[in-house]
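lol so apparently i was supposed to do this last week
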Amino acid sequence: MHRLGKKSLSAATQDLPGGGLALLFGASGGIGSALSKRLRADSRFAGVVALSRSGSPPLDLLDEASIAAAADNVAAMGLDLRLLIVATGVLEGEGCFAEKSWRHLDAQALAQSFAVNTIGPALLIKHFMPLLPRSGRCVFAALSARVGSIGDNRLGGWYGYRAAKAALNQILRSAAVELKRSRPEAICVALHPGPVDTGLTAGFGKHGLEVQTPDIAAARIINTFDRLRAADSGGFFDQHGRGIPW
Ligand SMILES: NC(=O)c1ccc[n+]([C@@H]2O[C@H](COP(=O)([O-])OP(=O)(O)OC[C@H]3O[C@@H](n4cnc5c(N)ncnc54)[C@H](OP(=O)(O)O)[C@@H]3O)[C@@H](O)[C@H]2O)c1
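anyway here it is w/ NAP bound
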């Protein structure tokens, strides 16, 4: 098990067994759309299922029945699940706020941020982890955020988003521990995509940040997956495969 979440990945790539299924949640988002295009062009996968709230059938993280129905559909496809990427999330809007001060803390907004950023992905774990193959390499990765790192928090603010991502990281870590018992070759990680020019960050200052296009971010994310080993499961990495402190 990866101990401190600070180790970097090796440069060597690890191929996923060919012919399996790649599954993407949040395919309508900035990073999700770019990931969807790249996965569809990746000949390692026999199929790509790209799910979103506006897709058909719709998958809404706030509606567990839609998650359960999606899992039933995927199971019925009969292909080995080799890659699952959770690219959903919300920072501001839809009842969430990027709070600048404790003066802005609002119970409903905090609950909404946790519902989308933490509980939704937890329900994906509940319904999709049991579908992972018992042998062979497979990767479950959720896009987290460096601002969810408690050790790295020097600026404060963004209380709800930071806390929801920190809680997501803990859930992923617990899932990695449980996953290892039945599927020792499987990998579950939290991944920070780096600053990316998407709707999520529109309107926020990016001074001093190396902002990536969604396509470059997607390429780096997939390259990072290719370098993950079973021993990296339970870790928290950035888009370059560098470990991030919890
Ligand atoms: N962009 C960055 O700089 C950055 C940095 C660090 C971490 N991240 C993380 O990367 C991930 C993707 O972010 P992004 O920049 O691509 O954001 P984005 O363009 O705003 O996309 C967000 C995605 O989440 C989906 N979503 C929101 N609420 C949902 C719900 N209730 N049920 C199902 N899907 C829902 C959206 O679906 P709709 O299209 O239906 O709204 C959309 O597909 C997020 O987890 C974010 O926290 C991004």
